[in-house]
C-alpha cells in the first residue's frame, strides 16, 4: 500500500509559507471564477442545462457514439476504438509507426496521463514533446502534473528559472516569468517545426456534426496540429455533446470556471482533416462504462475538466496536488478513483464541506460520491488510519445518549486541563491546528437550564 | 485492438435513467454588441485597430510592409508582401510577422472572433505569425457564443477557430504573459457596416 494522503501532505506542508502561497494562488482562481459567475445572470440556469445535457449524453452514449462516428467518417476522419489503456496506446503507436513518424508534439490531455501514453511511445522510439508550457516544465523535471488546468502551480519561478537554465540555456539566476515564457516559446518553436505528427485531446465532441472542439490559451494545440500531415485526437467517450448549441454552452462555461476568463484564447473546431493530411480520433472506455454502471458513481462523467472543484478545495489548496495517489487530484480525482482499496486513504482527503459541489458547472455530486466511496471501503473493511479498529467502538459510544454525554464531558475536561503543547501531540489535524476552546457545558445541559421542561 | 463492434459489445449499460435532452437556451445580451465587444476584447489582451474603414487596414498593412516586416494578408483588398497563393506548406510561414485575416463573426461576451479555415491559405496562418490582425464587420458582432453558433449554422464542416486575444499563459507562478506559442498580439479592426 502506498503512503497515506495525510503522510504526503506532511511533506508538502513542512514549508508553511509555501503552503500559504500555494493556497492563495488557487483561491485567486476561485475568486476570478466568482466574478464571472456574478457577471452572468443566467449562471445557475446554465449549470442546470449543462448538467441535464450531460445526463442526456451519459444515458444515450451508444447512439451518440454511433452518430459521432458516422459523421466523422463522412467528414474524412478515421475513428478508432480502445476498450482499455493498452489498446489505446497500441493504436496510437501503430498509427505513428505505420507512417514512420518519429516525433510527436502533443497538447495537454488528461487521458494520455491516465493511460501512460508517453512512456509507451518512447519505448517504440517515438519522441514525445509536451507543448503546454506547464506540462513541458514538468516533462523536463520528470514530474507529474499537480493540477489538471495549471499543472505547474506548485512550482516557484526560481525553480523554473533554474530548470530552464539547465535545459534550454536561459541566463543563470533569471526567473522573470515573461523572459522564461518567451525563451520557452523560442525553444518550442523549433520542436513544432520539426515534428512529424501532432496529438491533441478533445474538449467536446459534437455528435451531430462529427466535429470536435479543442480549447487552449497558449495556442499550442493548433500550432501542433496544423503543421505536420498527421493529427491524432484522443478522447474519453464521455466528451460527447449532442450538438453545436451544447458545445457553445460548455465553451461559455469552461474557461469561466477554470481560470475566470470569459473564454480560452482559442476554441478550435476540427470538422475535417487538412487537404492531403490525416486526422484520427481514438475513443476510449478504460473503465468508464463500468463505473457508469453504478448509479452512485456514474455522474463523475459529466465532468468537463475545468478544475473549479480543485481550486476551491481546502484540502487540495493546503495539501498540494502531489499528495494524491490518483493522477487527477482534488475532489474530482477522489470522486473518480476514491474507491481504490490500494489507495484507501484518498477518500478521506476530504472534509465533505461541499464547496466543490457548489462551484461545479455541471453539478457533479462530488461530496456524495466521495462519501459513497467511504461507505464501500467500510463495508470491505478497508478503512485507513486504523479506523477499522476504533470506528466500531466510537459508533457504539456515540450511538447511546449516555455514552455520548460521558465522552463529551471527558473531552471538555481534557481540553481544559491539557496544555496546548500536548494537544498538538495527539496527531492528525491537531498537528497544524489548535483545538477549539471547549464550551463550559454541554448543549443538553444548556438546553435544560434555558428552555427547561 | 478492438473493432467497433467489440467496443460496443464491451460497454456496460449506463445506470443513468434515460434523461431527455433539455432545452439549451440561446442566451442574448442587452449591452450594445459593438461597445461590449471592444470592452471585452481589451480585457482579454486584444487591441482595437485604429479606424473603422478597410482603407485604415490597407494603410496599416502598407506601414508594416514599409518597415520591412513580413506581412501575409488574406483579406481581400489588403496588400501584404507575401503571396498567399504561393504557399505550399504551412512551415513556409515560420517567418511571418503579421497575418491579416478576415473574421466572419465576433462575439461580444468573450471578445473573440470566428475565423474560418476557408478564408485562410493554410490553417496555421493565424497561429504561426508573430502578430495577428483580424477584420470584422460591425454587423457581424453577436452577443454570446450561443448566438454565434446559431448564426454560423454549423461549427464543423471543415475547420474554424474562435480567437479571444493573443496567445497567453500563466503557467509560471500565475503571472500572465502574452505570446506563449501563438500570436504575441491580436488587433481587431471593426469596420462600420454598410
Description:
The complex is a heterodimer of chains A (453) and B (194). Chain A folds into three domains: 5-29 and 307-379, no CATH class; 62-289, Rossmann fold (3-Layer(aba) Sandwich), CATH 3.40.50; 396-450, no CATH class. Chain A is 53% helix and 10% strand. Chain A has 23 helices and ten strands. Chain A has a six-stranded parallel beta sheet with strand order 1-10-7-4-2-3, sandwiched between helices. In chain A, strands 8-5-6-9 form a four-stranded mixed beta sheet, sandwiched between helices. In chain A, strand 5 (204-206) and strand 6 (211-216) form a beta hairpin. In chain A, helix 3 (43-58) crosses helix 12 (244-258) and helix 20 packs across helix 21. The radius of gyration of chain A is 25 Å and the shape is globular. Chain B is α/β, with parallel strands linked by helices and 194 residues long. Chain B contains four helices and eleven strands, in the order ααβαββββββαββββ. Chain B has helices at 4-10, 33-43, 54-66, 145-152, and strands spanning 47-48, 71-73, 98-102, 105-107, 112-116, 131-137, 141-142, 159-163, 168-169, 177-178, 185-191. In chain B, the strands form three sheets. Chain B has a five-stranded parallel beta sheet, sandwiched between helices. The model of chain B has no long low-confidence stretch (mean pLDDT 95). At the A-B interface, helix 2, helix 3, helix 4, strand 1 and helix 5 of A face helix 1, helix 4, strand 8 and strand 9 of B. Strand 9 of chain A pairs antiparallel with strand 8 (159-163) of chain B, so a sheet runs across the interface.
Task: Give a short overview.
The complex is a heterodimer of chains A (453) and B (194). Chain A has 453 residues and is α/β, with parallel strands linked by helices.
Distance between the termini of chain A: 54 Å
Can you give the helix content of chain B as a percent range? 10-25%
Q: Which sheet architecture does the biggest sheet of chain B show?
A: 5 strands, parallel
Greatest chain-chain interface?
A-B, 100 and 76 residues
Largest sheet of chain A: 6 strands, parallel
CATH topology of the largest domain in chain A: Rossmann fold
Overall outline of chain B:
globular
Distance N to C terminus of chain B: 57 Å
Portion in strands of chain A: 5-15%
Strand content of chain B: 15-25%
Integer count of domains of chain B: 1
On the 0-100 scale, what is the average pLDDT of chain A? 95
Rg of chain A is 25 Å
Class inferred from helices and paired strands of chain B? alpha/beta
Amino acid at each position: 500500500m502506498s503512503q497515506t494522503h495525510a503522510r504526503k501532505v506532511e511533506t508538502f506542508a513542512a514549508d508553511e509559507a509555501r503552503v500559504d502561497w500555494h493556497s492563495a494562488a488557487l483561491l485567486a482562481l476561485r475568486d476570478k471564477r466568482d466574478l464571472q459567475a456574478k457577471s452572468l445572470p443566467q449562471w445557475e440556469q446554465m449549470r442546470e442545462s449543462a448538467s441535464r445535457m450531460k445526463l442526456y449524453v451519459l444515458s444515450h452514449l451508444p447512439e451518440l457514439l454511433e452518430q459521432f462516428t458516422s459523421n466523422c467518417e463522412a467528414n474524412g476522419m478515421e475513428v478508432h476504438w480502445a476498450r482499455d489503456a493498452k489498446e489505446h496506446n497500441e493504436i496510437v503507436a501503430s498509427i505513428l509507426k505505420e507512417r514512420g513518424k518519429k516525433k510527436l508534439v502533443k497538447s495537454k490531455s488528461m487521458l494520455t496521463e491516465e493511460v501512460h501514453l508517453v512512456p509507451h511511445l518512447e519505448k517504440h522510439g517515438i519522441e514525445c514533446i509536451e507543448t503546454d508550457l506547464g506540462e513541458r516544465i514538468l516533462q523536463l523535471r520528470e514530474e507529474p502534473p499537480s493540477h489538471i488546468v495549471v499543472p505547474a502551480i506548485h512550482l516557484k519561478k526560481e525553480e523554473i528559472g533554474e530548470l530552464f537554465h539547465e535545459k534550454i540555456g536561459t541566463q543563470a539566476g533569471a526567473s522573470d516569468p515573461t523572459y522564461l515564457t518567451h525563451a520557452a516559446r523560442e525553444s518550442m518553436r523549433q520542436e513544432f517545426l520539426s515534428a512529424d505528427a501532432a496529438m491533441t485531446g478533445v474538449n467536446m465532441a459534437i455528435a451531430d456534426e462529427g466535429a470536435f472542439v479543442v480549447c487552449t490559451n497558449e495556442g499550442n494545440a493548433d500550432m501542433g496540429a496544423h503543421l505536420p500531415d498527421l493529427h491524432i485526437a484522443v478522447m474519453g467517450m464521455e466528451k460527447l455533446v449532442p450538438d453545436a448549441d451544447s458545445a457553445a454552452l460548455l465553451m461559455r462555461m469552461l474557461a469561466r470556471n477554470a481560470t475566470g476568463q470569459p473564454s480560452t484564447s482559442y476554441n478550435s473546431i476540427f470538422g475535417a482533416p487538412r487537404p492531403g493530411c490525416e486526422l484520427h480520433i481514438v475513443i476510449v472506455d478504460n473503465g468508464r462504462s463500468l463505473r457508469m454502471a453504478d448509479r452512485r458513481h456514474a455522474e463523475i462523467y459529466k465532468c468537463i475538466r475545468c478544475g473549479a472543484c480543485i481550486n476551491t478545495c481546502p484540502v487540495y489548496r493546503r495539501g498540494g496536488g502531489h499528495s494524491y495517489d490518483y493522477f487527477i487530484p482534488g475532489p474530482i480525482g477522489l470522486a473518480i478513483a476514491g474507491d481504490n482499496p490500494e489507495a484507501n486513504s484518498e477518500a478521506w482527503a476530504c472534509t465533505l464541506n461541499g464547496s466543490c459541489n457548489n462551484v461545479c458547472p455541471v453539478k457533479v455530486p462530488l461530496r456524495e460520491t466521495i462519501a459513497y466511496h467511504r461507505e464501500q471501503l467500510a463495508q470491505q473493511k478497508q478503512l485507513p488510519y486504523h479506523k477499522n479498529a476504533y470506528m466500531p467502538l466510537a459508533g457504539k459510544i456515540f450511538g447511546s445518549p449516555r455514552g455520548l454525554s460521558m465522552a463529551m464531558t471527558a473531552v471538555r475536561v481534557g481540553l481544559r486541563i491539557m496544555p496546548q503543547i500536548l494537544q498538538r501531540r495527539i496527531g492528525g489535524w491537531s498537528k497544524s491546528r489548535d483545538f477549539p476552546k471547549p464550551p463550559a457545558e454541554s448543549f443538553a445541559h444548556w438546553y435544560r437550564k434555558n428552555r427547561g421542561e | 485492438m478492438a473493432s467497433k463492434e467489440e467496443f460496443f459489445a464491451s460497454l456496460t449499460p449506463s445506470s443513468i435513467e434515460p434523461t431527455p435532452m433539455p432545452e439549451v437556451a440561446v442566451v442574448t445580451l442587452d449591452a450594445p454588441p459593438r461597445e461590449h465587444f471592444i470592452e471585452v476584447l481589451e480585457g482579454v489582451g486584444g487591441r482595437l485597430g485604429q479606424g473603422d474603414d478597410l482603407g485604415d487596414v490597407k494603410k496599416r498593412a502598407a506601414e508594416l510592409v514599409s518597415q520591412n516586416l513580413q506581412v501575409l494578408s488574406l483579406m481581400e483588398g489588403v496588400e501584404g508582401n507575401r503571396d498567399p497563393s504561393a504557399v505550399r506548406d504551412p512551415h513556409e510561414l515560420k517567418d511571418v510577422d503579421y497575418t491579416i485575416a478576415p473574421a466572419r463573426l465576433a462575439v461580444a461576451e468573450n471578445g473573440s472572433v470566428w475565423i474560418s479555415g476557408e478564408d485562410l491559405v493554410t490553417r496555421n496562418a493565424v497561429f504561426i505569425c508573430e502578430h495577428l490582425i483580424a477584420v470584422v464587420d460591425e454587423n457581424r458582432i453577436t452577443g454570446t457564443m450561443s448566438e454565434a453558433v446559431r448564426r454560423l449554422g454549423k461549427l464543423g464542416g471543415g475547420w474554424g477557430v474562435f480567437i479571444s486575444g493573443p496567445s497567453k499563459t500563466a503557467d509560471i507562478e500565475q503571472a500572465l504573459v502574452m505570446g506563449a506559442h501563438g500570436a504575441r498580439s491580436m488587433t481587431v479592426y471593426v469596420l462600420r457596416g454598410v
